[in-house]
Amino acid sequence: MTEYLTDQIPGIGGTIRHQPEDFRVEEIPLYQPSGEGDHLYLTIEKQGLTTYDLLRELAVALDCKERDLGYAGLKDAQAITRQTVSVPLRKPGDIKGLKIPGVKILSAAQHRNKLRPGHLAGNHFHIRIHQPEPGSLRIALEVLAILEESGVPNRFGEQRYGSLDNSHRIGRAILNQDFDAAVGEIVGDPLSILHPGWREAAAAYHSGDIKTAIEKLPRHCRPERTLLRLLKEGAPPRKAVLAMPRKLLRLYLSAYQSSLFDRLVDMRMQALNKIWPGDIAFKHVNGACFVVTDPAAEQPRADAFEISATAPLYGFKTKLAEAQTGLLEESLLDKEGLTLRSFRMSGGLAMEGERRPLRVPIQAAACVADGDDLLLSFSLPKGSFATTVLTEVMKARP
Description:
The protein contains twelve helices and 14 strands. It has helices spanning 51-62, 136-150, 167-175, 179-187, 196-206, 210-216, 222-232, 237-242, 246-267, 295-303, 323-335, 386-394; strands at residues 23-29, 39-47, 70-71, 80-88, 103-111, 120-129, 152-153, 280-283, 289-291, 307-313, 354-357, 359-360, 363-370, 373-381. The strands form three sheets. Strands 1, 2, 3, 4, 5, 6, 13 and 14 form an eight-stranded mixed beta sheet that branches. α3 (167-175) packs across α9. The longest helix is centred in the middle third of the chain and has 22 residues, at 246-267. The chain starts with 22 loop residues before the first strand and ends with a helix. The mean pLDDT is 95.
């Protein structure tokens, strides 16, 4: 069950994403292109495409390799989003007349380096909340005021856990070498699946009929189909699971890391702005971390939002906190039956881990009524999710 920082304030309810125009995201660049260099930075507005879809379309249209294109962040398909993509060895004139459905090129300028993931300061969001409860504007503004003062819980949230809300459980099963459980989660629980063909396939698999499961799987479930075919041919579950695309396996493991982090955030939800003995603190100005030796001396810096406490994205290189905080972090690992060494998997699946702040600042927050709806806008640093703000405002899964 999700913990709320603003649990003393009721939620406004409502719904989002009735249409792409309801959810707008614009990247906040980390730097501006210099105007010279071997890479062309394209500022693009897109709709109906994920970032990966956009890269594929651009690679075909510009006759270049997809891996040579650069991007700073991943953006959703079910929204109107603005982001920057870099293209090697191109000039602004090369993209004249370029037409890709759902894509509008807003600007083009040259720069010296390829754009890399994380090369952005953050994202600005404009979100329409449809038909919230009466009195919602006052409530939303009250929630935003608390978030501006205390910070936004830096949770990953449910969108990290896939359409069946179980990617983290798949990752946990893989990490624990329980490949039978991993297969069951990958195929899915029929009660959680909306797609009728996929639901029939899952029901057939769980009844022991792999042949029918393969036949019923919808076309888009290619990795799942390959998994079941290997099992049907006699491959052990371990071999079948680890034969899945490495990117997908790492996504499952990352989802599990994220779920553990979210649990630690929930444990400290009512003290997000506090510095505890043994904390590893995060400097918001540059992302550097340090071990807190005197919490009382550091608390004024946390009150000024210069620093925040962190929690681990567990991995084999992760530094755990000390004292009170360290006990909390170690106890969660113990409860899961893991050590940091558990994350040193072979086959390109090892997870190094890192520290992540428990909270992030929200900026340019505003909310206005528009008929029966609310229009909510705000900015968050890179790596943070709008759903964390929406969850606090709506008190429901967005």
